[in-house]
Amino acid sequence: MVKFFAMLAALPPVVSACMCVTPVLCSSQPDPARIAFVGRVIDSYPASVFAYGLPGEDDFHMGDAPGSFALHKQILLSLWQSAFTPAERAAVEMASDSGTLRAATDLHGVPRRVRFEVSAWLSGSGRSTSEVFTSFDSCGFKFEPGKQYLVLSRANDLSGRWETGACSGNALAATKQARQDIAVLRAWKPNRKISPCKSRWRF
């Protein structure tokens, strides 16, 4: 039977500079819009934030310079043309500012796609590989090629793409916190609340 987990209440975790408190595994209610697995990074696209024409991994502020929004939109269309649905691409092409771009696609800003070879499913799919989307900005998670991670992700409400970030609870699989979380997820059963129920800070 496929296991599902849910996080404690839908609290917006992001605070200034993505200092966040993550509600961890405190519900007995099934949530098919969330997955958890242990996997090794096999691919990250684009490989660098430089693909967006940025000098570094700082937050991207559209409108900082004349023409910057139009250029950013053009770069997004070029980088993600294979990922956009026809309707999504049309909406992106018609976007006139950052607000309409956010409404057009969840791949706004400085996104990147990370693919994993999955060694253990703790909740969800069961496939040998999985891909999630995160960001190069401060709210994204910096997955490194070849390394093994505990990955927690949720499906975007509109696109269905799996998303994760700095506040999701991801960690290198070998760390103490990840080992504890993996043990909890493996022991968890539907309709039984995890105990003890606790939150932890992530920055």
List the helices and strands and how they pair.
Elements: E1 20-24, E2 34-45, H1 68-79, H2 86-94, H3 98-104, E3 111-123, E4 129-135, E5 148-155, E6 162-163, E7 171-172, H4 176-187, E8 198-202
Antiparallel strand pairs: 1-8, 2-3, 2-5, 3-4, 5-6, 5-7
Helix pairs in contact: 2-3
Structural class: alpha+beta
β content, as a range?
25-35%
What is the approximate shape?
elongated
Total domains: 2
Q: How many strand elements?
A: 8
Following the backbone from N to C, one meets helices and strands in this order, namely: EEHHHEEEEEHE
Structure, described:
The chain has 4 helices and 8 strands. With 203 residues, the chain is an alpha+beta fold. The chain has 2 domains: 112 residues, OB fold (Dihydrolipoamide Acetyltransferase, E2P) (Beta Barrel), CATH 2.40.50; 43 residues, no CATH class. The strands form 2 sheets. Strands 2, 3, 4, 5, 6 and 7 form a 6-stranded antiparallel β-sheet that branches. The radius of gyration is 18 Å and the shape is elongated.
Briefly summarize what is shown.
By secondary structure, the protein is an alpha+beta fold. It has helices at 68-79, 86-94, 98-104, 176-187, and strands at residues 20-24, 34-45, 111-123, 129-135, 148-155, 162-163, 171-172, 198-202.
Structure characteristics:
alpha+beta; OB fold (Dihydrolipoamide Acetyltransferase, E2P); 2 domains; 6-stranded antiparallel beta sheet; two-stranded antiparallel ribbon; 4 helices; 8 strands; disordered N terminus; disordered C terminus
